[in-house]
Amino acid sequence: MAEVNRNGLLSGQVAVVTGASRGIGEFIARRYAMEGAKVVVSARSVAPEDHYLPGSINETVQAIVDAGGEAIAVKADLSIEEDRHNLITATEAAYGPVDILVNNAAVTWFMPVKEFSEKRFRIMMDVQVWAPFELTQLCLPSMIERGRGWVLNISSHAAIHPQATAPGGHGGTVYGMCKAALERFTTGLAQELHGTGVGVNVISPGLVATPGVVHHKLINESNKDRVTPVEHMAEACLRLCHGDANAITGRIDYADQVIAEFDLEPADII
Question: Does residue 268 sit within a domain?
Answer without folding.
Answer: no
